[in-house]
């Protein structure tokens, strides 16, 4: 028994549709909504990395709202920084190499 939750430090879009919404709204101050399966815990109102479904780190966001129900977590976030392609590649490589 007990409460099962997953603690996350990167907000990653889960679907093609969410990734498309993310790329379409990728400007400082814009809002995105991402739905995750299960119960998730994220830091609120502090910058964390945001990634598309292929793990390309595209910027930083601040999660402003988190709603958990029986089987999913719905997150609303505001984009606070946008990375260019070079920055995205450097960050992706650093994270990927660090997991080896």
Description:
The chain is of the alpha/beta class. It has helices at residues 16-24, 85-98, and strands at residues 6-7, 10-12, 31-37, 40-41, 47-51, 57-68, 72-82. It has a five-stranded mixed beta sheet with strand order 2-5-6-7-3. Strands 1-4 form a two-stranded parallel sheet. The longest helix has 14 residues, at 85-98. The chain is globular, with a radius of gyration of 13 Å.
Quick structural summary:
By secondary structure, the chain is an alpha/beta fold. The protein has helices at residues 16-24, 85-98, and strands spanning 6-7, 10-12, 31-37, 40-41, 47-51, 57-68, 72-82. It has a 5-stranded mixed β-sheet. It has a two-stranded parallel ribbon with strand order 1-4.
Task: Describe this protein with a few key phrases.
single chain, 100 residues, alpha/beta, two-stranded parallel ribbon, 2 helices, 7 strands, 23% helix, 42% strand
Average pLDDT metric: 89
Biggest β-sheet: strands ordered side by side in the sheet: 2-5-6-7-3
Order of helices and strands: EEHEEEEEH
Distance between the termini: 33 Å
SS strand fraction: 35-45%
Count all strands and give the number: 7
Give me the secondary-structure category. Answer: alpha/beta
**Number of helices in the DSSP assignment:** 2
How much helix is in the residues?
10-25%
For the biggest sheet, the summary is: 5 strands, mixed
Gross morphology: globular
Write the layout of secondary structure elements.
Blueprint: E1 6-7, E2 10-12, H1 16-24, E3 31-37, E4 40-41, E5 47-51, E6 57-68, E7 72-82, H2 85-98
């Amino acid at each position: 028994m007990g409460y099962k939750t997953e603690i996350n430090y990167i907000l990653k879009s889960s679907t093609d549709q969410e990734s498309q919404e993310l790329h379409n709204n990728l400007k400082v101050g814009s809002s995105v909504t991402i739905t995750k399966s299960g119960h998730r815990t994220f830091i609120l109102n502090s910058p964390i990395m945001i990634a598309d479904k292929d793990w390309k780190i595209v910027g930083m966001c601040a999660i402003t709202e988190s709603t958990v129900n029986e089987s999913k977590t719905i997150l609303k976030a505001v984009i606070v920084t946008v990375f260019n392609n070079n920055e995205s590649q450097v960050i992706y490589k650093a994270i990927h190499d660090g997991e080896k």
